[in-house]
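Quarterly update from the structural biology core.
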Amino acid sequence: MISKTWEHLSRISFSPFDLLPQPEMREKIAALVLNGIPDGLEGEAAAALKTFRVELNKSTGEDVKVVVFGGGTGLSNIIGGDSRRQGWDERPFEGLKRVFPQTKAVVCVTDNGGSTGQLLKDIDTVALGDIRHVLLSSIQASRLHRLYGISCREVQHVANNLSLIFNYRFQGPLEDDHPVWTLLDRKVGELPAKLRHFLQKLIVFLRTDPRMSRTLQRDHCFGNLLLAAAVLSSENSSCAENGPDSFACALNRLSSVMGVGERGVLPCTTTPSQLLVRYANGVEIPGEHKLDTARRGIPITTVRIEYCDKINTTPEIFQDILEADIIIFAPGSLYSSIIPVLQTPGIADAVRQNRRALKMLISNIWVQQGETDLTSEDPERRFYVSDMLDAYEVNIPGGTAGLFHEVLCVSMRDIPASVLQRYAIEGKVPIYLDRGALITRGFIPVECDIYSKNLLNNRGVIQHDAVSLAQVIRGLYYGRVSFEEAGPSFVQKRKEIVTRPHIEPGKVVLPRLRYDRICKRIQAMSVQNLSSSPWPAEDFKRELIDIFWDHPVIPASHLDFFKDIQLINRRMWGRDQKWDNVFSYFDPEDRCIKILADELTSHQRLELALMVALGESLLGDYAAKKEIRDVFVDGLRLGHVFHIKLRPEEERTCWFSDRELETFFHLARMSRVPGEPGHYYRLININERFTPPGLLMGMTYAWYVDNRLASNIEYKMSVLQISSSSLIPSQLKMAERQRKTIDFFRDVVFLKKTWE
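Predicted structure, tokenized:
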């Protein structure tokens, strides 16, 4: 027996890597690169591992072509660090760009919040804010040195000045005598001559071109204005010859003088577009910024992109992807960074066609409110890395097949529990690595210390570290010979999940055109202030414009269904409150929206009042007659019958056709009187609460736009979140009616073709 055991042992060959504790070769390499040789490991094995580590860390990536996909913050952070973060100016040239100077970033451009959203009111462009982030993070010391022949100290000063200029935020209006011009002129004046002259021309353009005059009245980030000036001024230059690619041409010019490099930063498309989010209950809401502000309590199921014109992508992007040695999917918002990029026609296919690149996904660290804090299966359970992959499977045409092999995850093992507890108090919880689920599906989890230990030790903050990430990626790229069998021959075991088929992208009107239409409509109406409120009409109109603009789900054409707005004192308020306590309504007699002055005390109260009345206005003068008749049996009053008789379709002003109104009345639990077209009724028990169709339309309209505005409808819709039981047929019936109500509002009330 002993001889046989010895014979077996003598045939076993050990590698020094077998002495490392990590379970997988990639994790061994990552740990070796970041942490060195484990304590207690000596002799020949330790020497061999040390030599291997030195060789990995000394490997130059100058000739390695890298393509990174993502949104603004996550993408910029791994390329060179977020220039807005404290301490970036001390080490502005770290990250992927230092290890791999030929790094190119492909940026998502669907953002519509903040300064970017303000720009979209005035200029037909893609979102510029994320491009600004990535431009600053992509500035390379070696390029600045070659361009301008300046010292290392001067190179850092240039990068810091550019960060200050491009990230500077101001409150408009930015008049000619505003002190910000003096500050910026001084900082620009400290830059090298060629760069200084380039930016000075852009500033002159900002101050003189008529197209910029309106946007200078708003609050902005100055870098976004410089980017807009670069794009608009290119229309009068040789870039104009490039047609749809003039945006990329203008961006390349700016990139080159900033030390970013030729085509170092590119938008995934140069066609203005917006994100359309569908929740599990069927509600669809456009606008990326709504992901941050919405608290719908319902998981997101799908997202898609709607474009304002023919989809254009710079052709060189596809060549860059095909030639890449490394392809990286950066961390960032799950539904508003990677997915929109890969929904851009041709990009995902180009990634799959490159079969030789090292492809990896860098997993997010934290659950993000509004996006990854809920799952479709169980809103109470944790969010796992595999849930991210499921979202990619569903939302990317063709799923995850061929997109990436390795999944890099932050190791939480060495992070103090006190830090995680503090994050939990702030509402932040980690995205958990479910290693077995990833392996089963054919992905390779690489758990390693790619967080900033400096930030953790000094500020108790857990964030991806650009330096550590770059070191790990370099180690995996040059050490891939040790796991080459998972390279070109890699076969992913696909989870049984319905992947997204190819769907023709939707089309949406340019934000500027929608904004202009809203402004013209509001300015043309009359605001009759019949209250004691001192709110000037012009100020009130600006508030209305902001409310309507903030909800891109509302077609501008909805504003055509009312004439004016009246603000009314409580003592003059004549609305019967028998059936409701809502203090706004649409009056079909004069086609005015009427709002009780009490509702002007807060933005949210005004918003609710406005949305309810706006929804009611879509019904217009649909009713020729409304009446309530008492029901008596043997002299005992048992309830009422509510009757509505419709005005003929050709005689009314109404958003809906006869057929659509019939659908709505059915959802409002009203029945058609047999043999009397256009006559509907509803039996109401003596103690039953009743929501008339007009109010139901208004309240549901407000709820669909923003569920926080209508708590009573939110309560009714919550039945969709309850696990249904066949033991309660009424619950099933109610849930089915709510689903059909949502479908009606999505497909009829907020029909996309009405945006044209």
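Residues 486-491 have pLDDT under 50 and may be disordered.
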